[in-house]
Each structure stands twice: as C-alpha cells, then as structure tokens.
Fold:
Amino acid sequence: MADEEPKLLTYIPEVILKKRKSNEEWALKRRQQLEERKLRSKQNKAFNLKTAEQYIQEYRSRELDLVQMKHRRKRRKPSLAKLDSELLFVIRIQGKNDMHPKTRKILHFLRLRKIFDGVLVKANEGILEMLQKVEPYIAYGYPNLKNVKELIYKKGYAKIEGQKIPLTDNNIIEQALGKHGIMCIEDIVHEIANVGPHFKEVTSFLWPFTLNKPEGGFQGKKKLYKDGGDAGVRGDKINELISKMN
Structure:
C-alpha cells in the first residue's frame, strides 16, 4: 500500500491573519467597554436613588433654614456703639445643600462662596444684619493687627479683571490703588487695620482669603459659639481660629 502523501497546510495570507487578530482585539475591547458601561449604569442608578431619597430631607432643611432666618431677623440687632472695633473678619464654616437660596445669596454677597473662605469687612448696620441672618454658617470677630498682616502676606491675592493674582509685585498694587495713595502691601495692611477712608476699595481689590481646615475640623452643627458650638460671633477669640486656619 503506497504511503499517503501528507496534506499541505492551508496557506492563510498574513493580511488576513493581522485582520483577524485586530478583530479579536476589538471584540475584547468592546466587551470590556460594555461591562464598564453596565457597571457605571448600576452606580448611576444607585446614586440617583440616593439623591431621590435625600431630596425631601434637603428641601425640608432649606425651608427650616428660611424659618430660622426669619426668627433671627426678629432678634435685637447688635448695636454699633457696643462693638469693640469696626473691623470684622468673617469665615464661612459650613453650608451646602441645606441652605435656603436666600441664605446662599447673602453669603455670595459677602463674597463667601466656598466653605473656609474669609473676608475682612467694615461693621455697619447693613453688614451686622446680614451676619445675623446667616449666623449658623459663619464665624466672625475682631482680628488683631498681627493676624491682619499675616493673612495679607500669606493668603493675599489681588482680584484683577476677574483673575486671582498673587501679591508678589508692588507695581500691581500701585496700578490698582495708587490713586488712593496705596502703593504697597504695608499700605494695604495699614488701610485695613485702621479701617481707613479707602477700606472698601482695598478689600474689593483683594480676593477672598482661602483658609485651611482647622486641625480637628468643626462640629458640623449650627450651634452658636456662645452655646458651645462653632458659629456666630467670637469677639477677640476669632484670632485663635484665624491662627489655626492661616
């Protein structure tokens, strides 16, 4: 019996082999993408359910905030004559989804758009009334000269055409405030510490101070400082908080 001749292997062109490999890689990648999409879809559904569950609570919190604001507004307003200083430093310490839009509007007017933002303000009846309305979300008091100086030197930025510019060059200050006789950082410190005639122009020139979260954080409650909480007026004790956050 004659030996059978071995069958020749079917020749597959290299182009087809490369295409087949490419198709397999694409199919594998496509499968991974579909699995990732399914996972994201599950996560999004869980997130949406969580948001839906929280919606009523957030709505109630905002309405309660409005009611409490109205009650605070009825309280006796602080007297300017009783203030130890015209200069106040205000820090936003909390407030997110639980705030009523009116509360958020006041905080934005005070330039306290983010938690741990701080601003220097001149006390007047309008400012004191606003601080009273948003008292659970802020801490404020009388900053001393040392802290005013350190805030400006360490955290001071200029607001020029909507841009946040570091105070590294006195020419920036002179160009913006030179017409008021303010030429350098020391002039800014002097004008603010003494609540000078151009206080408004200087504080408007400065970007709100971005402070650090204090070690240990806050209690997260809206209890007033005088009652053992974090919020509201602190008087001279605000300097201890500034030192922790600067």
In short: The longest strand covers residues 87-92. The mean pLDDT is 84. The chain is about 50% helix and 10% strand.
